[in-house]
Design goal:
- This protein is of the alpha/beta class.
- It contains 13 helices and nine strands.
- The protein has two domains: 160 residues, Rossmann fold, CATH 3.40.50; 117 residues, Orthogonal Bundle (N-(1-d-carboxylethyl)-l-norvaline Dehydrogenase, domain 2), CATH 1.10.1040.10.
- The N and C termini lie far apart (52 Å).
Protein backbone atom coordinates (compact mmCIF):
# COMPACT_ATOMS: atom_id res chain seq x y z
CA UNK A 1 0.00 0.00 0.00
CA UNK A 2 1.28 3.44 -0.93
CA UNK A 3 0.95 7.06 0.08
CA UNK A 4 -0.82 8.55 -2.93
CA UNK A 5 -1.96 12.05 -3.87
CA UNK A 6 -4.72 12.53 -6.43
CA UNK A 7 -5.25 16.00 -7.88
CA UNK A 8 -8.36 16.76 -9.91
CA UNK A 9 -11.72 15.25 -8.94
CA UNK A 10 -13.78 15.69 -12.08
CA UNK A 11 -16.06 13.05 -13.56
CA UNK A 12 -13.01 10.86 -14.16
CA UNK A 13 -10.74 11.71 -11.25
CA UNK A 14 -13.37 11.38 -8.52
CA UNK A 15 -14.05 7.66 -9.07
CA UNK A 16 -10.42 6.92 -9.97
CA UNK A 17 -9.25 8.30 -6.64
CA UNK A 18 -12.02 6.32 -5.00
CA UNK A 19 -10.72 3.07 -6.47
CA UNK A 20 -7.28 3.84 -5.05
CA UNK A 21 -8.75 4.35 -1.60
CA UNK A 22 -10.81 1.15 -1.83
CA UNK A 23 -7.66 -0.73 -2.85
CA UNK A 24 -6.17 0.22 0.51
CA UNK A 25 -3.83 3.03 -0.46
CA UNK A 26 -3.63 6.11 1.75
CA UNK A 27 -5.02 8.76 -0.57
CA UNK A 28 -4.80 12.53 -0.16
CA UNK A 29 -6.84 14.58 -2.62
CA UNK A 30 -6.97 18.15 -3.82
CA UNK A 31 -9.55 19.77 -6.06
CA UNK A 32 -10.03 23.42 -6.96
CA UNK A 33 -13.67 23.13 -5.92
CA UNK A 34 -13.20 22.43 -2.24
CA UNK A 35 -16.75 21.19 -1.71
CA UNK A 36 -16.18 18.32 -4.14
CA UNK A 37 -12.97 17.35 -2.33
CA UNK A 38 -14.80 17.39 1.00
CA UNK A 39 -17.55 15.22 -0.47
CA UNK A 40 -14.94 12.76 -1.73
CA UNK A 41 -13.31 12.68 1.70
CA UNK A 42 -16.63 11.92 3.36
CA UNK A 43 -17.40 9.15 0.86
CA UNK A 44 -14.02 7.42 0.80
CA UNK A 45 -12.41 8.38 4.09
CA UNK A 46 -9.25 9.84 2.56
CA UNK A 47 -7.44 13.04 3.44
CA UNK A 48 -8.38 16.38 1.90
CA UNK A 49 -5.56 18.87 1.30
CA UNK A 50 -5.75 22.63 0.94
CA UNK A 51 -3.45 22.78 -2.11
CA UNK A 52 -1.84 20.53 -4.69
CA UNK A 53 1.53 21.00 -3.01
CA UNK A 54 0.09 20.03 0.36
CA UNK A 55 -1.47 16.92 -1.18
CA UNK A 56 1.87 15.92 -2.69
CA UNK A 57 3.92 16.42 0.48
CA UNK A 58 5.09 13.00 1.67
CA UNK A 59 3.50 11.18 -1.28
CA UNK A 60 5.21 8.34 -3.13
CA UNK A 61 2.92 8.78 -6.12
CA UNK A 62 1.00 11.78 -7.44
CA UNK A 63 -1.77 11.27 -9.98
CA UNK A 64 -3.09 14.24 -11.95
CA UNK A 65 -6.41 14.43 -13.78
CA UNK A 66 -6.94 18.11 -14.52
CA UNK A 67 -8.12 20.10 -17.53
CA UNK A 68 -5.43 21.02 -20.06
CA UNK A 69 -1.78 21.92 -20.62
CA UNK A 70 -1.93 25.13 -18.61
CA UNK A 71 -3.58 23.36 -15.67
CA UNK A 72 -0.81 20.75 -15.62
CA UNK A 73 1.88 23.44 -15.73
CA UNK A 74 0.19 25.28 -12.87
CA UNK A 75 -0.12 22.17 -10.71
CA UNK A 76 3.43 20.90 -11.18
CA UNK A 77 5.27 24.21 -11.58
CA UNK A 78 6.88 26.63 -9.16
CA UNK A 79 5.52 26.08 -5.67
CA UNK A 80 3.52 23.09 -6.87
CA UNK A 81 3.79 19.33 -6.89
CA UNK A 82 7.39 18.93 -8.04
CA UNK A 83 8.68 21.30 -5.37
CA UNK A 84 6.75 19.36 -2.72
CA UNK A 85 7.94 15.89 -3.70
CA UNK A 86 11.08 14.13 -2.61
CA UNK A 87 13.50 12.39 -4.96
CA UNK A 88 12.26 8.95 -5.94
CA UNK A 89 8.58 9.90 -6.10
CA UNK A 90 6.63 9.40 -9.33
CA UNK A 91 4.04 11.61 -11.03
CA UNK A 92 1.49 10.06 -13.39
CA UNK A 93 -0.52 12.53 -15.44
CA UNK A 94 -3.91 11.22 -16.61
CA UNK A 95 -4.83 14.57 -18.16
CA UNK A 96 -5.16 14.61 -21.95
CA UNK A 97 -2.53 17.16 -22.97
CA UNK A 98 -0.11 17.87 -25.77
CA UNK A 99 2.97 15.69 -26.09
CA UNK A 100 4.96 18.90 -25.73
CA UNK A 101 3.84 19.54 -22.17
CA UNK A 102 4.39 15.87 -21.27
CA UNK A 103 8.02 16.08 -22.36
CA UNK A 104 8.42 19.45 -20.64
CA UNK A 105 7.18 18.12 -17.29
CA UNK A 106 9.24 14.94 -17.68
CA UNK A 107 12.43 17.02 -18.03
CA UNK A 108 11.51 19.19 -15.06
CA UNK A 109 10.76 16.16 -12.91
CA UNK A 110 13.91 14.29 -13.94
CA UNK A 111 16.06 17.25 -12.90
CA UNK A 112 14.69 16.77 -9.38
CA UNK A 113 15.07 12.98 -9.33
CA UNK A 114 11.32 12.45 -9.77
CA UNK A 115 9.79 9.99 -12.21
CA UNK A 116 7.09 11.08 -14.64
CA UNK A 117 4.65 9.09 -16.77
CA UNK A 118 2.22 10.71 -19.19
CA UNK A 119 -0.76 8.40 -18.83
CA UNK A 120 -3.96 9.56 -20.55
CA UNK A 121 -6.91 7.20 -20.31
CA UNK A 122 -9.73 5.89 -22.48
CA UNK A 123 -13.00 4.33 -21.39
CA UNK A 124 -15.02 7.37 -20.40
CA UNK A 125 -16.91 8.07 -17.22
CA UNK A 126 -18.28 4.53 -17.11
CA UNK A 127 -14.76 3.12 -17.35
CA UNK A 128 -13.62 5.33 -14.48
CA UNK A 129 -16.58 4.32 -12.33
CA UNK A 130 -16.19 0.62 -13.11
CA UNK A 131 -12.40 0.59 -12.80
CA UNK A 132 -11.94 -0.61 -16.40
CA UNK A 133 -9.97 2.20 -18.01
CA UNK A 134 -7.28 1.74 -20.64
CA UNK A 135 -4.13 3.68 -19.71
CA UNK A 136 -1.63 4.62 -22.45
CA UNK A 137 1.75 5.56 -21.06
CA UNK A 138 4.92 7.33 -22.05
CA UNK A 139 8.04 7.57 -19.92
CA UNK A 140 10.96 5.66 -18.49
CA UNK A 141 10.35 1.93 -17.86
CA UNK A 142 11.42 2.22 -14.21
CA UNK A 143 8.78 4.88 -13.48
CA UNK A 144 6.12 2.97 -15.42
CA UNK A 145 6.88 -0.26 -13.57
CA UNK A 146 6.18 1.49 -10.28
CA UNK A 147 3.01 3.24 -11.44
CA UNK A 148 1.32 0.34 -13.24
CA UNK A 149 0.48 -1.76 -10.13
CA UNK A 150 -1.09 1.29 -8.46
CA UNK A 151 -3.08 2.26 -11.55
CA UNK A 152 -4.41 -1.31 -11.69
CA UNK A 153 -6.99 -0.19 -9.11
CA UNK A 154 -8.95 1.57 -11.88
CA UNK A 155 -7.68 0.06 -15.13
CA UNK A 156 -7.97 -3.15 -17.08
CA UNK A 157 -4.96 -2.34 -19.25
CA UNK A 158 -1.95 -0.13 -18.53
CA UNK A 159 0.66 -0.19 -21.28
CA UNK A 160 3.99 1.57 -21.81
CA UNK A 161 4.09 2.74 -25.43
CA UNK A 162 7.47 4.47 -25.50
CA UNK A 163 9.36 7.51 -24.16
CA UNK A 164 7.80 10.64 -22.69
CA UNK A 165 5.00 11.98 -24.86
CA UNK A 166 4.12 8.56 -26.31
CA UNK A 167 1.10 8.18 -24.08
CA UNK A 168 -0.31 11.51 -25.24
CA UNK A 169 0.41 10.71 -28.89
CA UNK A 170 -1.42 7.40 -28.49
CA UNK A 171 -4.39 9.21 -26.96
CA UNK A 172 -4.44 11.43 -30.05
CA UNK A 173 -4.66 8.33 -32.25
CA UNK A 174 -7.53 7.17 -30.05
CA UNK A 175 -9.45 10.44 -30.33
CA UNK A 176 -8.96 10.70 -34.09
CA UNK A 177 -10.36 7.20 -34.50
CA UNK A 178 -13.32 7.83 -32.19
CA UNK A 179 -14.29 11.06 -33.97
CA UNK A 180 -14.41 9.32 -37.32
CA UNK A 181 -16.35 6.36 -35.92
CA UNK A 182 -18.95 8.60 -34.32
CA UNK A 183 -19.52 10.67 -37.44
CA UNK A 184 -19.91 7.52 -39.52
CA UNK A 185 -22.30 6.06 -36.95
CA UNK A 186 -24.32 9.30 -36.85
CA UNK A 187 -24.76 9.31 -40.61
CA UNK A 188 -25.65 5.60 -40.67
CA UNK A 189 -28.28 5.86 -37.93
CA UNK A 190 -29.79 9.02 -39.37
CA UNK A 191 -30.05 7.28 -42.74
CA UNK A 192 -31.73 4.24 -41.17
CA UNK A 193 -34.26 6.36 -39.30
CA UNK A 194 -35.11 8.39 -42.39
CA UNK A 195 -35.61 5.12 -44.28
CA UNK A 196 -38.17 4.02 -41.68
CA UNK A 197 -36.25 1.02 -40.34
CA UNK A 198 -36.71 -0.50 -36.86
CA UNK A 199 -33.39 0.81 -35.62
CA UNK A 200 -33.23 -1.33 -32.46
CA UNK A 201 -33.36 -4.39 -34.69
CA UNK A 202 -30.86 -2.84 -37.11
CA UNK A 203 -28.42 -2.23 -34.26
CA UNK A 204 -28.77 -5.84 -33.09
CA UNK A 205 -28.03 -7.10 -36.58
CA UNK A 206 -25.14 -4.87 -37.65
CA UNK A 207 -23.54 -5.05 -34.21
CA UNK A 208 -22.86 -8.74 -34.86
CA UNK A 209 -21.05 -8.01 -38.12
CA UNK A 210 -18.15 -5.94 -39.36
CA UNK A 211 -19.85 -2.67 -38.30
CA UNK A 212 -19.72 -3.68 -34.65
CA UNK A 213 -17.80 -1.37 -32.29
CA UNK A 214 -17.76 -0.03 -28.74
CA UNK A 215 -19.45 3.13 -29.98
CA UNK A 216 -22.26 1.21 -31.67
CA UNK A 217 -22.81 -1.02 -28.64
CA UNK A 218 -22.70 1.76 -26.05
CA UNK A 219 -24.03 4.78 -27.95
CA UNK A 220 -26.21 3.47 -30.78
CA UNK A 221 -29.44 3.21 -28.81
CA UNK A 222 -29.00 6.50 -27.01
CA UNK A 223 -28.30 8.18 -30.35
CA UNK A 224 -31.53 6.96 -31.93
CA UNK A 225 -33.39 8.11 -28.80
CA UNK A 226 -31.72 11.55 -28.83
CA UNK A 227 -30.19 11.08 -25.35
CA UNK A 228 -26.94 12.91 -24.74
CA UNK A 229 -26.94 14.12 -21.11
CA UNK A 230 -24.06 11.86 -20.05
CA UNK A 231 -20.66 10.63 -21.20
CA UNK A 232 -17.66 12.46 -22.66
CA UNK A 233 -18.49 16.10 -23.29
CA UNK A 234 -18.37 17.69 -26.73
CA UNK A 235 -16.27 20.58 -25.42
CA UNK A 236 -13.63 18.16 -24.15
CA UNK A 237 -13.49 16.31 -27.46
CA UNK A 238 -13.15 19.66 -29.23
CA UNK A 239 -10.20 20.43 -26.97
CA UNK A 240 -8.64 17.02 -27.66
CA UNK A 241 -9.06 17.26 -31.42
CA UNK A 242 -7.43 20.69 -31.34
CA UNK A 243 -4.39 19.05 -29.75
CA UNK A 244 -4.41 16.40 -32.48
CA UNK A 245 -4.59 19.00 -35.24
CA UNK A 246 -1.77 21.05 -33.73
CA UNK A 247 0.43 17.96 -33.43
CA UNK A 248 -0.32 16.83 -36.99
CA UNK A 249 1.57 19.83 -38.34
CA UNK A 250 4.76 18.52 -36.73
CA UNK A 251 4.47 15.22 -38.57
CA UNK A 252 3.04 16.36 -41.91
CA UNK A 253 0.00 14.17 -41.18
CA UNK A 254 -3.21 14.88 -43.04
CA UNK A 255 -6.24 15.01 -40.75
CA UNK A 256 -8.84 16.06 -43.30
CA UNK A 257 -11.75 14.17 -41.73
CA UNK A 258 -10.69 15.07 -38.20
CA UNK A 259 -10.66 18.78 -39.06
CA UNK A 260 -14.12 18.48 -40.58
CA UNK A 261 -15.56 16.70 -37.52
CA UNK A 262 -13.87 19.15 -35.18
CA UNK A 263 -15.82 21.86 -37.01
CA UNK A 264 -19.01 19.90 -36.40
CA UNK A 265 -18.24 19.78 -32.69
CA UNK A 266 -17.67 23.53 -32.74
CA UNK A 267 -21.14 23.92 -34.25
CA UNK A 268 -22.65 21.87 -31.42
CA UNK A 269 -20.89 24.04 -28.85
CA UNK A 270 -22.29 27.15 -30.53
CA UNK A 271 -25.76 25.57 -30.24
CA UNK A 272 -25.30 25.16 -26.48
CA UNK A 273 -24.24 21.52 -26.65
CA UNK A 274 -20.82 21.78 -25.04
CA UNK A 275 -21.78 19.33 -22.29
CA UNK A 276 -23.62 16.87 -24.55
CA UNK A 277 -22.02 13.48 -25.15
CA UNK A 278 -19.76 13.26 -28.20
CA UNK A 279 -22.30 11.00 -29.92
CA UNK A 280 -24.54 14.07 -30.29
CA UNK A 281 -23.02 14.55 -33.76
CA UNK A 282 -26.26 13.00 -35.03
CA UNK A 283 -28.18 16.11 -33.88
CA UNK A 284 -26.56 18.09 -36.70
CA UNK A 285 -28.28 15.81 -39.20
CA UNK A 286 -31.79 16.17 -37.84
Amino acid sequence: MANVAFIGLGVMGYPMAGHLARAGHHVTVFNRSADKAQRWGSEYGGTVAASSAAAATGAEFVFLCVGNDDDVREVVGRGGVIDALGAGAVIADHTTTSATVAREVARHAAARGIGFVDAPVSGGQAGAQNGTLTVMCGGEPAAFDRVAPIAAAYSRACTLIGPSGSGQLTKMVNQIAIAGLLQGLAEALDFGQRAGLDMDTVLDVIGKGAAGSWQLDNRGRTMIRDQFDFGFAVELMHKDLGICIDESARHDAGLTITRLIDGYYRELIERGGGRWDTSSLIRRLR
